Task: inverse folding
């Protein structure tokens, strides 16, 4: 018996020794906790790289007919879009952006650094707004709870919009408080300039007020008044714009530059190029590069069955399409165009005209054009006067040119119908007014309303 | 006095057996085999008594016997014999090996040798010679088609490309599904490594030189592998390497193989040239990817008939493979040795691709003392490869070659100004790729195995086995800047360090109790595996031909390392009753570092019974039944199926699209999008197996059939999709359930056998039904579907279904067409194919006539769909053979808009291009019959070499893939999964390097 005890004892010792031996599951490669200043730059990069210029961001440019694929139909240009193409953007919104912002905000609140929670709330609002403008009803109040809730229900777009305004206000309030930690070079957007963050927040408030001009229960006049009051504290110069810089060195290129590399066969559309030409828009050579083979400004007609010679078509010029271009996410011009639109709604075309002109001129100047040159003056003379009949059309047309490659152009078209576009040849449906819910979501979180088609209207997109 | 006598009598009575012993004599003896080598572990029994012993390591034994008795001597692999004793105190016994088939000895789990008749589960052995016949440098490929229940899938024809080996079906959704590889009792790594760009890597079993292999045993079911613990749950491929022999003069062997490979390329149309809608594009100043141009036979350029460039013939070259081996084996009185060196050199069919392997293997067995034997085996291999990007990446030369127009001269690849010459935009000239893009990998690998055997007593053996597997892989990817793709050049340097240590300490006791023959094994296992990846990626190169990373204008670097440790305690009891009933019980208790601390230890085990019922057959039946056995087993095996560090949710240095942090001088971290699961526990595999084994007609016919049913429960899914709205796109759960049921049949027959001529046939068949029972039913909304590379995992379906757009159809199955007369695609995706075959089988025939031997081997895969991506893209370009049929047509179908019969005529070009967007159009049944090997060999007659120092010489010619019948598949070789051996790479035929048909000449001489 004694032997058995010895064996038992040896076995027990062995097992407890073994427990120690296998206690090696501590990750040496990834930290379990990081500070706010490490999360902020990464999230800002996601917003610029994956959201503003992600897959859905590119598809938006197809829908607003700015770009065309040198491919036979059907393709994205003729509205061939499948639900799995939204997987990445949905994940970029919730997992990469919102969840990390939530962590950053929680940390900042815990360690007395409202500067970070203010910025976090503003970026959170921008991102959730982008998402609801893509998909409509989306998870919010039940979202970001990890294992506690893997199947968050969807909040109505109306409540998401209410949240956006409230959260922007909270963000602004936070920026007014004393903060332990201050962002600096970790803030790629504004280098820690909290005043600019506040101007952005007010401009976004105006943008999202104006999104609801035809939303049920809201009036254009009411929304315009709210927007005008927000814009009083909004952006005041092009320096205030929310833009993201790319150094352009190898591996650090602007995503639109990558998107327009020859491998994608993506080029600018004939619609875009011809529209600028027909208006004798002096910004044409700043926005559009001449085709490599011909030296001409030529876009590709969307929806044409055949395939053309790739180098016969134009791609974006250096300002927007070079490796070191900025991504212009929220422009100062947008603030001015919003003001012009709201002023028109509240006070009519006469009052709106100078605001509109300032917006156009600001963009012309930003694009490096001399406001006194003959072609600029001719262009301004041609397009410079708003009337009650043309005001919304002109404002939206010029806003869309100033917002080249910006996802906001799709929201503007949906709420105003301008710049006017018509269904492309060989279209598989009418022009899309929303994205399909992603396949990953259909699989992992079935919710009512996910069957929505791309031609269905969002809540704020009432007829 | 009487008291004393009484007392003595009592003592005598009390010690009867002792007093009897007193009257016995000590018999000393030694048991050797026919060659005179000592045989350890041979059972020596005295007939009619319970007395007995077993031989020690040197074959010796001591036994008390009555002066006149009969010894029953038996041992695994040897014919049991009886030897009468009449007073002598010493005896030398020579045992003859039993009929190889009757009492076949097989290597079982942990390297324990057992008689096949005693086994309670299914194993299958493939001899080293049989492997060598296939002329495959990769052991995995050499096994293809030979083992029932095993599916081998090769990936591409690139030299050194990986192959996948799955036994009895896929059991894990995202975890390891491939078999565990064990060499001489020690697990070795078979990961797929070495690819820094698109295409398959190399599965590391390639580092083992097949010519050092004595035999391969495949343990299929959980009952057979339970002793291997977690990692054995997927089946075990046990490799036994060659040995020397005691008291044998050195034998020196040389062999030289030379083979020539011709690529198996898909058929393309050569009738039409480059162009669009029949209009010719010359590819010089008119560029297009379309090959919808004019007929070549009517096309004239400059008034002369246009030349036809057969792109495939121009591009691919004949591959040349050379394999040289030299080996020596022999031994003295106390030690034996085997040593070999081989050099394998393959030049691929794609120019500038190759694979080279130096392999050194040595094994020394030494008797340190009478009771201690040591074996030291060391494998060293050095392999290197050069390969090109594969698949449908823009850089892949095969893509461009398969879809290039025959009207275009691909050379030279540069214009006078140095820019690339191309026939279309958005691709490199494939010949430019050969000179400017390369993926090189070098592996240095050591596999030392040390085994110490201590025969403590004649019934107790202690074995200590320490093995390591250590390799370093240096890989380098170089891509020059391309003016065609506007890429800026890239250099990637990666170092991968792998080390794995495995230690087994086993105590093996054998004892006979009357008719019970028992064997008890107790053991412990310690396992540790570490790997580290260091990678530097340089982008933006400017000095042509300079391949150091300093050539890059921006460099990013990362390092990651992973450590996994496991411990295990195991026990096995085999109880044989009277040579007809065998009970085998195993139990194991494992601890793994990767599981939650409170779940890190888990027990499991198996029970199996075999009944040799032929022992009870009547005399008539015994005339033709040599052996017949039924067996049944149940087993449950625990598995830790997840990588290290899956419990928590850490932050990760951010990689956002092309942007790698640190960025602009800032570090950046994002919370992992995979939510850790802190309560992770082991998954479990439950298996029931029933089998029959029989040998008939004096071993001229043998049949083995097994049925198994196994279920994975609590299956670990590392990366089950979660709603990203939860904040995480995936998590790891214990929620999968998969089922595999199957039938395996093995038939060996020798229809003819006489002194001059013999004919052997080996047939195997397996049919596996696989089903995903659950992905995550624990969720409030069960998850029904997960993406898995090119396939999907869908609840209720076999593992690996192809999912995508189908042809839109009416209720009664007619095609729906649009107003333009072209087929419509369904709005939503659905299942379009299933990659799992219905059944697989193989038939091998060997004929011997004197010194001549001729063998051929067919294998069959019935069913199993393939996504023919080559056709998929080809329909767009107009290059597959079928697109030769490009006349105008009316697609038979119903117009979706008005329900009328379609009457709109469309061009062939538009029709084929429409099919390009409908996945169903390129799903093809992968059924094939392959003449995989044909070997003809001739042994130099003994009488010719009798007087020389040459002991033997064999010359052989072998052909591989000589004939492939694949009635539904329009590619060349339906066996391929183009992107490697991983779970997600299966079921797609894309633009990988084609596999080959080859002829091999081989000469082997021994001295």
Result:
């Amino acid at each position: 018996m004694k032997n058995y005890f010895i064996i038992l004892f040896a076995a027990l010792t062995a097992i407890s020794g073994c427990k120690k031996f296998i206690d090696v599951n501590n990750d040496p490669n990834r930290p379990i906790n990081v500070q706010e200043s490490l999360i902020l730059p990464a999230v800002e990069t996601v917003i610029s790289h994956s959201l503003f210029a992600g897959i859905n961001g590119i598809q938006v440019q197809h829908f607003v007919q700015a770009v065309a694929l040198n491919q036979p139909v059907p393709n994205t240009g003729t509205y061939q879009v499948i639900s799995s193409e939204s997987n990445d953007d949905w994940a970029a919104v919730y997992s990469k952006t919102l969840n990390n912002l939530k962590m950053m905000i929680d940390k900042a609140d815990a360690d007395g650094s409202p500067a970070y929670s203010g910025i976090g709330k503003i970026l959170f609002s921008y991102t959730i707004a982008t998402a609801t403008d893509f998909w409509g009803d989306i998870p919010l109040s039940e979202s970001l709870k990890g294992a506690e809730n893997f199947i968050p229900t969807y909040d109505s777009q109306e409540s998401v919009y209410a949240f956006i305004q409230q959260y922007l206000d909270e963000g602004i309030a936070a920026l007014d408080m004393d903060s332990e930690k201050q962002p600096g070079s970790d803030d790629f957007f504004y280098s820690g300039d909290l005043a600019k963050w506040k101007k952005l927040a007010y401009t976004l408030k105006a943008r999202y007020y104006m999104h609801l001009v035809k939303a049920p229960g809201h009036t254009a006049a009411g929304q315009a008044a709210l927007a005008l009051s927000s814009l009083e504290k909004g952006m005041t110069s092009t320096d205030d714009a929310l833009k993201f810089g790319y150094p352009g060195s190898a591996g650090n290129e602007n995503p639109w530059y990558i998107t327009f590399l020859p491998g994608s066969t993506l080029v600018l559309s004939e619609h875009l190029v011809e529209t600028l030409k027909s208006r004798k828009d002096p910004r044409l050579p700043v926005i559009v590069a001449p085709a490599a083979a011909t030296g001409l400004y030529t876009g590709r007609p969307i929806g044409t069955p055949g395939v053309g010679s790739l180098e016969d078509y134009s791609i974006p010029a250096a300002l927007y399409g070079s490796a070191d271009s900025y991504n212009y996410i929220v422009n100062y011009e947008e603030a001015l165009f919003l003001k012009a639109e709201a002023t028109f709604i509240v006070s009519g075309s006469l009052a709106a005209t100078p605001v509109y002109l300032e917006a156009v001129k600001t963009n012309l100047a930003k694009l490096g054009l001399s406001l006194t040159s003959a072609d600029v003056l001719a262009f301004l003379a041609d397009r410079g006067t708003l009337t009650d009949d043309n005001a919304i059309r002109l404002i939206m047309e010029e806003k869309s040119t100033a917002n080249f490659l910006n996802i906001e152009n799709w929201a503007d078209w949906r709420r105003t119908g301008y710049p006017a576009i018509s269904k492309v040849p060989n279209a598989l449906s009418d022009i899309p007014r929303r994205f399909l819910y992603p396949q990953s979501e259909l699989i992992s979180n079935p919710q009512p309303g996910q069957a929505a088609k791309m031609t269905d209207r969002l809540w704020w997109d009432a007829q | 006095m009487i008291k004393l006598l009484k007392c003595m009598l009592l003592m005598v009575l009390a010690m009867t057996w002792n007093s009897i012993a007193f009257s016995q004599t000590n018999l000393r003896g030694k048991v050797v085999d026919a060659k005179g080598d000592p045989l350890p572990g041979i059972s020596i029994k005295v007939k009619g008594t319970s007395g007995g012993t077993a031989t020690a390591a040197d074959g010796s034994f001591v036994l008390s016997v009555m002066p006149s008795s009969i010894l029953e001597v038996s041992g695994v692999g040897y014919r049991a014999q009886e030897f009468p004793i009449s007073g002598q105190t010493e005896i030398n016994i020579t045992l003859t090996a039993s009929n190889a088939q009757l009492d076949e000895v097989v290597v079982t789990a942990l390297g324990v040798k057992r008689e096949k008749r005693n086994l309670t589960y299914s194993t299958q052995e493939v001899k080293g010679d049989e492997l060598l016949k296939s002329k495959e440098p990769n052991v995995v490929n050499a096994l293809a088609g030979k083992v029932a229940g095993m599916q081998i899938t090769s990936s591409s024809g690139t030299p050194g490309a990986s192959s996948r080996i799955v036994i009895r079906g896929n059991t894990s959704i995202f975890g390891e599904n491939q078999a565990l590889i064990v060499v001489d009792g020690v697990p070795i790594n078979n990961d797929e490594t070495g690819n820094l760009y698109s295409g398959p890597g190399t599965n590391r079993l390639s580092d083992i030189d097949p010519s050092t292999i004595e035999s391969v045993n495949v343990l299929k079911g959980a009952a057979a592998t339970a002793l291997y613990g977690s990692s054995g749950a997927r089946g075990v491929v046990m490799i036994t390497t060659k040995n020397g022999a005691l008291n044998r003069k050195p034998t020196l062997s040389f062999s030289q193989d030379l083979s020539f490979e011709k690529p198996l390329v898909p058929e393309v149309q050569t009738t039409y040239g480059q162009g669009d809608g029949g209009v010719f594009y010359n590819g010089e100043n008119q560029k297009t990817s379309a090959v919808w141009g004019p007929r070549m036979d009517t096309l004239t350029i400059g008034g002369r008939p246009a030349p036809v460039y057969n792109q495939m013939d121009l591009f691919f070259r004949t591959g040349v493979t050379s394999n040289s081996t030299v080996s020596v084996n022999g031994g003295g009185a106390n030690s034996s040795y085997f040593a070999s060196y081989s050099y394998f050199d393959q030049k691929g069919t794609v120019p500038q691709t190759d694979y080279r392997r130096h392999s050194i293997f040595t094994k020394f067995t030494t008797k340190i003392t009478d009771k201690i034997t040591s074996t030291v085996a060391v494998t060293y291999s050095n392999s290197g490869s050069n390969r090109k990007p594969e698949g449908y990446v823009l850089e892949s030369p095969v893509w461009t070659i398969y879809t290039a127009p025959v009207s275009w001269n691909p050379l030279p690849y540069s214009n006078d100004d140095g820019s690339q010459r191309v026939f279309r935009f958005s691709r490199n000239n494939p010949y430019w790729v050969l000179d400017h893009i390369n993926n090189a990998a070098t592996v240095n690998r050591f596999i030392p195995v040390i085994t110490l055997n201590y025969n403590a007593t004649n019934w107790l053996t202690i074995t200590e086995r320490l093995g390591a597997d250590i390799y370093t892989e240096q890989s380098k990817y170089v891509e020059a800047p391309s003016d065609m793709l506007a890429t800026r050049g890239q250099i990637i340097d990666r170092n991968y360090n792998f080390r794995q240590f495995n230690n087994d300490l086993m105590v093996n006791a054998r004892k006979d109790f009357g008719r019970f023959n028992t064997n008890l094994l107790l053991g412990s296992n310690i396992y540790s595996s570490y790997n580290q990846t260091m990678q530097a990626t340089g982008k933006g190169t400017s000095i042509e031909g300079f391949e150091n990373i300093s050539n890059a204008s921006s460099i990013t670097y990362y390092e990651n390392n992973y450590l996994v440790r496991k411990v295990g305690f195991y026990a096995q009891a085999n109880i044989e009753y009277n040579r007809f009933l065998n009970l085998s019980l195993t139990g194991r208790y494992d601890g793994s570092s990767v599981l939650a601390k409170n779940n890190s230890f888990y027990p499991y085990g198996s029970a199996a019974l075999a009944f040799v019922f032929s022992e009870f057959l009547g005399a008539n039946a015994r005339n033709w039944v040599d052996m017949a056995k039924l067996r049944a087993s149940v087993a449950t095996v625990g598995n830790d199926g997840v990588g290290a560090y899956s419990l928590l949710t850490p932050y990760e240095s951010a990689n956002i699209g092309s942007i790698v942090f640190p960025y602009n001088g800032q570090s950046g971290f994002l919370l992992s999008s995979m939510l850790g699961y802190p309560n992770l526990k082991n998954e479990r595999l439950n298996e029931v197996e029933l089998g029959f084994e029989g040998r008939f007609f004096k071993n001229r016919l043998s049949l083995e059939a097994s049925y198994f049913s196994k279920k994975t429960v609590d299956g670990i899914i590392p990366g089950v999709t979660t709603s990203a709205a939860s904040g995480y796109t995936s998590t790891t759960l214990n929620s999968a359930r998969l089922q595999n049921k199957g039938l395996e049949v093995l038939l060996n027959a020798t229809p003819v056998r006489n002194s001059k001529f013999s004919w052997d046939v080996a047939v195997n068949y397996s049919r596996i039904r696989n089903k995903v029972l659950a992905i995550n039913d624990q969720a409030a909304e069960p998850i029904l579907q997960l993406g898995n590379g090119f396939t999907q995992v869908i609840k209720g379906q076999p593992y690996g279904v192809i999912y995508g757009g189908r042809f839109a159809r009416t209720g009664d199955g007619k095609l729906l067409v649009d107003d333009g007369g072209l087929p419509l695609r369904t709005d939503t995706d659905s299942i379009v194919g299933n990659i799992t075959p219905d059944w697989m089988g193989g038939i091998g025939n060997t004929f011997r006539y004197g010194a001549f031997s001729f063998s051929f081997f067919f294998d069959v895969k019935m069913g199993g769909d393939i996504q023919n991506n080559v056709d998929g893209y080809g329909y767009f370009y107009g290059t597959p053979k079928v697109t030769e049929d490009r006349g105008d047509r009316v697609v038979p179908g119903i117009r979706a808009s008005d329900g009328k019969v379609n009457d709109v005529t469309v061009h062939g070009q538009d029709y084929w291009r429409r099919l390009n967007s409908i996945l169903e159009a390129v799903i093809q049944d992968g059924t094939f019959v392959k003449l995989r090997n044909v070997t003809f060999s001739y042994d130099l007659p003994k009488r010719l070499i009798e007087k020389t120092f040459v002991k033997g010489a064999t010359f052989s010619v072998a052909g591989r893939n000589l004939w492939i019948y694949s009635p539904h598949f329009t590619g060349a070789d339906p066996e391929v999964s183009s992107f490697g051996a991983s779970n997600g790479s299966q079921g797609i035929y894309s633009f990988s390097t084609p596999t080959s048909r080859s002829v091999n000449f081989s000469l082997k001489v021994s001295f």
